[in-house]
Amino acid sequence: MEEPIALIGCSSPDQEAEYLRILSAAMPKERLVPFRAMGIAEREAARVAVVANPDPAEVAALPGLAWVQSLWAGVEKLVGAFDRPLPIVRLVDREMARTMAEAVLAWTYYLQRDMPAYARQQRERVWRPHPYRKPGETSVGLLGLGALGAAAAARLTGAGFRTVGWSRTPKDVAGIETFHGAEGLPAMLARCDILVCLIPLTPETRGLVDARHLAALKPGAALINFARGPIVVTGDLIAALDRGHLAHAVLDVFDAEPLAADSPLWSHPGVTVLPHISGPTDMDSAAATVASNLRAYRRTGRPPDGIDPARGY
Ligand code: NDP
């Protein structure tokens, strides 16, 4: 049987049809089959799975898999989910980096230009200008200087924001001051008017943005979380907002998604809720990346470089 490529984890039949169309057009020699439509022989024959937001059990149900290509940048659900080593290739895509960097700049402007305060004032019919703060007087700190953090840093510095960044290992990023490791974090947080979260969810980063680290931010600072919900301790965030240490939080990601209807975050005056839209996958661009990875695999027989399971990203 011709080896199929399994497609797993689309959010709806419409999305599945769209992904099949775009991926098949980008790699006409490959035969893509949705997992749900695969018979036993096809499941056994599949060597590659292309996954969006999959149930790991469906991926594990393909016994002959050689590697998994994610259409998402964050793959924390797949790390450690299998009983054998399985290379996981996450999406690193220029168009996603551009979209995410644009979102970071847009929501940084939203905070720098006091839009949450003006929205509140409008509801209360209050006419009160606030002093203008230039981008150069606003410090933005990036948690994470990887594919997305580095792209965001370039957009922020290009717009004149004072930018600092933090990573696990030392990094040299043009135009920004960098910090690394646990010992570098307090120094960076103390600089931040706006903290932007762009690190992966790993055992090390789960709960990282807690009461202690929020307290280390400048009084009146704001938080943007575009990475993963569990990196921020929700209760600690609400407490920091309630006591006025934090002015506002823009949250695109949550402990459970969709955000539960009874979550206090929906109605908190200091919170902007977004439905996980800051860095959507651009399928045309992603399909070209996936096709290129598959071509290299067919040529060499070696899976592309995957994430480091020990690091978790
Ligand atoms: P990368 O792997 O390219 O970069 C990760 C960065 O985080 C690196 O700089 C890394 O440090 C740093 N990091 C990881 N662990 C630690 C740690 N323990 N302490 C300090 N720094 C750490 O990832 P991307 O930039 O591509 O993506 C980041 C995350 O963004 C994804 O994992 C995903 O969860 C999220 N995302 C959200 C989207 C959305 O729509 N909301 C869309 C796309 C992604 P180092 O450089 O030293 O390795």
UniProtKB/TrEMBL annotation:
Source species of the chain: Methylobacterium longum
Tagged with keyword NAD: yes
CDD domains membership: GDH_like_2
Transmembrane spans: none
Domain D-isomer specific 2-hydroxyacid dehydrogenase NAD-binding, first and last residues per copy: 110-278
Swiss-Prot/TrEMBL keywords: NAD, Oxidoreductase
Protein name: Glyoxylate/hydroxypyruvate reductase A
